[in-house]
């Protein structure tokens, strides 16, 4: 598998994402995956808030549910089916006080994918919108896929045999997050100014030419009642703002 980080100009609120992609991306080959930082999607869509907003109130408004951690002073939140600090609200690598998640991240990802397929005239192409998140019991951040386009998100090993001939009963490979982690390592977390990456020769990919449906988007999530970590998630009281 080959990952190429793509440098761009600095991105400001209400810039044209299509122009940035046109300027920065090389000619795309069939079966490539274009990885896009959620930051530049949000900026180009104007998903920002000004300095008059209270960050704590903004987090509560943006989060699906939130839990305030008194020791760290940070809000742990549920947003778009993942656990993420501060509802994904960020203040780095932008001239804006606060950058939010795109309002319709599924729609954003599908629009990017459809435009790239048409512009580069390729039939099989994937897109992943990424962010960075933390992992319990580990220091540091790593990438996560917020949404995807153009391929099946899971590779199913259930029923296949392991190295000793025993059938696998539960294993599914999460391609979206695995590719996001690898790409974000190359894209960086600081001032690299590489909010794009192109992945080639990714294994176990099944491409399709239709937009990701809401049903497929939600299929990657697991209900807390079935989640291995469900007892921890349900052992605390999460707060919610009225929408």
Q: Can you tell me about this structure?
A:
With 243 residues, this protein is of the alpha+beta class. It has a domain at 2-48 and 102-221: CofE-like (60s Ribosomal Protein L30, Chain: A), CATH 3.30.1330. It contains seven helices and twelve strands. It has a five-stranded mixed sheet. The chain has a three-stranded antiparallel sheet with strand order 4-5-6, covered by helices on one side. The mean pLDDT is 96.
Q: How would you summarize the topology of this molecule?
A:
Layout: E1 2-6, H1 17-24, E2 32-37, H2 38-45, E3 48-49, H3 55-62, E4 65-69, E5 74-79, E6 82-85, E7 98-99, H4 105-120, E8 125-134, E9 141-149, E10 154-156, E11 172-174, H5 175-187, E12 196-200, H6 214-219, H7 230-233
Parallel strand pairs: 2-8
Antiparallel strand pairs: 1-12, 2-12, 3-7, 4-5, 5-6, 8-9, 10-11
